[in-house]
Every structure is written in structure tokens, then in C-alpha cells.
Specification:
Blueprint lengths: L1 E2 L20 E5 L4 E8 L2 E7 L17 H9 L5
Antiparallel strand pairs: 1-4, 2-3, 3-4
Length: about 80
Amino acid sequence: MGTVRKCKKLPNEFVLEKHTVFESVFAFTENITLVSYAQKTNKTLVLRSTMHNKEKINTEGKEKKPQMILDYNASQPRAQ
């Protein structure tokens, strides 16, 4: 599981201008799942994962973050 850099070629559905705030767009292959999540206007995060294979979105709170992002954030060490 990890982030995808902006310089990588992505499908047209992942283009920043097409997202509204807190919208998630998923793409699936046999082994990999991509999610594009609009955190703010003009700020999109793209993650890829081999652990996830469903469009699971946390509906608690207004942000509606995909489970992939919550799992990624939980796996990152906290700065002290």
C-alpha cells in the first residue's frame, strides 16, 4: 500500500479537475486497487493497494474517507 506520484500516467477518471471535495474514485485490476480521493479543492490523493479489493468508504464524519486511506494513515509512524 502506498501513494502514487503525480508524474505517473493515470486514467482520465483520476484527473484532478473532475473531482468534487470528499469524492472517491476507484479503479481495479486483478491484483491492484487504486483510489483517488479529493481532500480539498485542487488537492487529490492517489493510493494503490494490493490488500484492498472493495469500494469501502467510512461514512462517519463529513469527509467520507476510503478505508484504504484510513489503513494507510494508521500504518505510518507518528512524528514526535
